[in-house]
Give the backbone structure.
Amino acid sequence: MHIYPVTQEGGLNHVKLLAREDDVIIDNLKQLLCHTLSDFIEDLVKDIRWLDETPLPQYFNKLDKFTKDRRTHELIYLLGEANQVLTTDISLEELIGETEDYVARLCLQTTEPQNAIPDVVIWMISGNKRIASCRIPASSLMFSETSRCRGKMCGKFQTIFLTPPGVEKLEDLVDQKGGAQVRLLLWLGLEQFQSEWAKEAMGGNVAVYAETYENQAFFVKWGTMRLTRPDWSDAKGKAKQPKEAFVVPDGWKWDGDWFINPELSIAFEADEGLNEWQEDIYENQIRAPFSSWTNDPTKSYWSDVRGDKLIAQENEKEAKELTRDDIQPPEGWRWVGNWQVDKNRACDKEGWEYSIEPGSSGYTPIERNVHLCRHRRWVITRLRLTDPKALEKKMEKRKKAIEEGWEYARLANLPYHLTEHSLDLARRRRWHRKMVAMNEEKPAVFYFEGEKKASTCEKCWIVQCHGPMVSRDSSMSWTNGIQIVQCHGPMKKGDEGADRDSNVLVPRLFLVFKDHHKYQLRAYLYQARDMYSADKTGLSDPYCVLGFGRYSARSRVVKESVCPTWDQTILIDQIKLFGDPTTIRESPPKILLNFFDKDTIGKAGFIGKVVCEPVVRFSTKDPAPRLDWYPIDRYTKTEGECLAAFELLLDEGGDLPFQPPTAPPPDRHFIVPSGIRPILQKTRIEVLCWGVRDMKRFQLLPVESPYVELECGGTVVQTKHIQKVSHNPNFPDPVVTFDVLLPKEQLHAPPLNIHIVEKRAFGRAPMVGTHIIKSVKAFFVEPNAADPDASKGSGFDWWTKYYYSIGDDQRTLEEYVNQGHDRMVVYSHELEEAFNNFTDLVQNFPLFRGKGSRDPNDPEGQVVGLFKGSVKVYPLPDDGSPMPDRIFSHIPSSAPVECVARVYIVKGIALQPQDPDGKSDPYIKIKIGKNTFNDKENFIANNLDPLFGKMFEIPITLPTDHTLTVTVMDYDYTSADDLIGTTSIDLENRYLSHHRALCGIPQSYYKQGSNKWRDSALPKEILKEYCLSMNLGEPQWESSTDVVVDRTIYTLKQFEGDNSERAPHLDTDGSTEEGKKSRVHPDLGADDQRLALHILRERKLVPEHIETRTLYNPLQPGISQGKLHMWVDIFPKTGANIPPPIDISPRKPEKYYLRIVVWNTKDVLLDEVSVATGEAMSDIYVKGWLRGQDETQKTDTHFRSLDGEGNFNWRFVYKFDYLAAEKVVVIKKKEHFYSLDKSETHLPPVLTMQVWDNDLFSPDDFIGTLDLNLLAMAEPARDASVCSVDQLPELGKPDVKLVNLFEQKRLKGWWPVFTEEEGVRELTGKLELEMEVVTEEEHNLKPAGKARDEPNLNPKLDPPNRPATSFLWFTSPWKTFKHIIWKHYKMWIIGAVLVLFLVIFIVIFIYTAPSTIMQTIVQGILPG
């Protein structure tokens, strides 16, 4: 699992997110959270050290010093607690709670108790009215030279949402959908650090400008005549600011001359950033007094919303009035549909609005005689085309329009716009002049010529901000950036300007980027659930409006649903963002999703909003986003969730993901692509629609004939209707089954909508109630949920409970004991001896109706009744395997006489042997009435304590079939089977007994799990039946935790105390200890059922049990022939639904393979001495076997090892049957060669490895051995140098680390081999092994052969690289000479050869020398 140690809070949120997934491993989550805590501790240590080492500033007062000491002590205390938690084994939930507590306590420490710096408030102003604001804590923006003390958002881009001011009641927010969205960069710090803030510009350059506005008015022509404000002024027109009056501040200089720099925001049209827009025009008519309106459309003229006529200028002198049909869509747009009259407004039935004179704002929908003009609104939808050429033309047109820089308005104090209109009387344009700093420490504050210079002090604070905003102060308004200087220190007496208020003026600051980056936003909107009901029917027609900066898009509308499935991908192209892409990835702009209810009449109703961030991807190699549930917030409440994913793709020439597929006509929208959308699988949903209760009237009439309409995953089914609720409120055929495609990942499971529809006269079918199950995840069960084994889903089989009850700790799973599960009563005798011979189905689902949220606990909620039913969801196989049985296949029926008897035979104990070898081959035979059942074909060979694990289900009729006979027989091949023993049970007595011996009463009432209630009747029903049979009267229930039985008051607290569950301990006689144990188990049932069960247990009813019945043989009367552990359940068919039987089949072992690779040996004892050389050596080989198996495998021989090292690369493969629950190996083999059947033996999995010395003419010599219990074996050493006998376990060495190979799966390392004499171990070698335990399936998938035989895989073993001296001497004479004789006698051989040659030379010399000498003498004496 990947670790995300970003921040402690981020790591905690990541763990919470992972915990919601289905296949999550709790241990991995704990490890991840512990890693986050370790980072937290490391940061705490650094913080504490830093606090201790940092000297206190001189200006610190007593409160500051006390605060520092308190924070230091709190951090030290937190450090100790965190270290203690890391060393304590606690659950994941407790670990998350502790971590959340640490985060909360740290947040408390960050609060400044004496904060003298006010928060930063961002205001949105329209005209002179403040319409929205956002408050940002100053501590998050504060700059400090020390990075660890700096505000986390200082100098960083962030997205904020402005909310309306002065909201006192929730109703005041009705028209506020989500607030304005602003992306900005903020910096707050001392003036002396003002040079630092420009470094945080995130890829942009800071530019400082002086600013003034040139103003003109229209009087015959544009000029300064009749101008109501100065010719040159500020943005508000209040302060006179001529260009020549600006004086550059100290430390600054002008960079260039004045130039026109218009406000770019006015160039953006109303449809900017939208892909769909509704165009509107107005049809106007005028009549004379006392005349009627004309119906001739040619007599109408067309205008915009301001009343200006639509005119097309054909040339300089002529102009043409346009009609509706003359209007063409703008460049890059196309019409969708036709022009339509907008009647969804205050108008008459034809859409007209009336007024006294044209152009006025006093239009009314009611016609009066004084009205002389009227108009109506025509609308048409246009869609944006993704045409680069059209976009380029539009940009050129916009650029040309803003070249002159004039902004127009009807009056100077009204909003300005780019295009000149006929009624505009004022215009202005903005002039800028750039300044550059010669001294960065000097503030950019200037004054006008003729005024005294304003002074500042060192206690001034500076706020730097970038974003489209307007200041509160007219002298400090801004659109692209501001610098606010606020002086907190008094000027010194005598300073220039100290005696009067100076007009401190601040120039504009811009964050200039060289270029922008293009992105594409993809929003994958899949579905939502449990949304707010905006209609009276309890449903909505939801759609989504996505806002991303200045871009917007809209989803399709889903009709009549509060759990809509859009399955839509929203694409927004050509998104321009400024700043470095890496900065965008770290802090992407926020996405705002507003959900609305589409209404035919009136405006759309607000449902809720979602604020989230997209995943920024630079290429397709970056990880794609995943669908996740986002809460939908409606004001102060959460109203539903939305399943969606978002990604922001960098679109600058790289490869983008393929365009999503489109939906079939008529929608044609993009759907969520594969890879993002959930993987679906065929799933079956079974719903038991039992009935309705307490239904309120609908439209003044009672609900009499309802039926259920179920919807999930787009599939809709319905039940048959009830004839009359007052007679029978249950549905006739209650089980509804349908198959749907649902996500495999249960986190993405869709909701299940339950609609109650009333069948009324004239074909009317109104919806009278609805319930939404947010997710069917909680109702998922195993596909074989109808299987008799009800304990498989809990992880414990029945045998765990049995062994726990009889006290066999070795075969009991520790988890079962630790979780406090129940025990059964194991009687050491017959059940009759202990009792004097014996003379869950539906849930309530609240139904809602009308607008509002669906909270059943809300006193003002819309609960109109209850639906009683149950839901089961399980996947269907897709591999062709048989379909699972349906869960609701057995519905309660009535049959008072007939019963079903289930006989459970657990095991035999000490049976009498019947065979000559002292063993028996037992099997079970059952007889009741005329029916006989035997299990002869499943006899158990050679066993006197057989584990039968059999259940026989027998239909009986009482009192006819009243005696049950259980016989144990011995199977013989050649003769008749022998009777071992028999026992009889009177079922009629048990059926009639007041002790209720039908089915044992368990310790606790569990609604599910391995201890699930298995009786056909619930405890309350059994208690009522018992009280009536004993003439005690019916129990009087005061509440679910109080009841009166036999004039005695019983309470749940009386039995369980303040804990949720009492865990009584039962001995073998059925008595209870009243010790109470604090245990809360999620499988526990309702309070009233638990209380009834406690009362029943006090009435000496038969508990859940196993009885020990003695077997007798008529040939040996009165002598025990052995015993049986067994019990009998009786279920009357006249009662409730008969539960499924318990599966007590014996545990079956699984086939495993133990694969061992013998790599090398080292430091093996050298057991021989070479005859030729006298060197110590050994011919090493290794052999091994599993205990209980006859197969012994051994390696080849490494000959002539001179240093104790052996190389093998040899594989052993052992196949064995392993019983994981009992941790034993099952051995089945014949005890003797003449045995007919195999006997079964259980042994621990012990591996024996031995090292031997190979001898050719004598028995091999034993060097050392190693025994390894695979369940608790010594951990191997990583290197041979640290391998010793100390790593092996033995008595008196509890600190040896042991590992379980079945848990580790694979181990590799060095183990010692040793010999032992008189209890002392002596190291005789070291063995390098690689061990692996795999199942049979894994072995088939990754096969591996023995030795180096095929398949030589997993891993592939190459022949060992042995020394050249490793060989058998008599099979290689040349090697023997080369590596033995020559190596050790080389000099002797060379010397002998030289001596030989010398002798030969001397002999030859002696032989030839006389004749040669004489010949020489003669030749010298005799002449010529």
